[in-house]
Design a protein that fits this description.
The protein is mainly α. The chain has five helices and two strands.
């Protein structure tokens, strides 16, 4: 991946993790909000880090759970869609559009990786 796309991917990954945490914080008005604000980003990070395709050029190439490429692609898209929906639910419309455009650009630039994932 080119450096711009790697940086863009990092930004949208971090934005998604933060969105999961912020959304979790707003799930409750009690102390449990802190639990949600920690558990939801951890869940995102766990799914993102554990289920990977061996030798993925956009990652270290290592994986905990060997995952077919098309399933990894669905997982990535599903997590980004979840983050976008959370931004919508929070009422952060402008951030939603910025995030959605960034995700779209990333996937547009990543057409080689997407083809690679589908062929795995």
């Amino acid at each position: 991946m080119n450096p711009f796309n790697s940086a863009l991917r990092l930004v949208i990954e971090v934005a998604a993790v933060l969105t999961f945490g912020i959304w979790g914080y707003h799930l409750s008005d009690t102390w449990i909000r802190f639990i949600w604000a920690i558990l939801l980003p951890l869940g995102f990070a766990l799914l993102w880090g554990v289920f990977a395709v061996r030798d993925d050029p956009s990652r270290s190439g290592k994986t905990v759970v060997q995952t077919p490429g098309w399933i990894r692609l669905i997982l990535e898209v599903a997590l980004f869609i979840a983050a976008a929906w959370m931004l919508y639910d929070l009422g952060y419309t402008i951030l939603l559009w910025i995030f959605a455009v960034a995700v779209f650009i990333h996937h547009l630039i990543s057409y080689n990786r997407i083809n690679w994932l589908i062929r795995q």
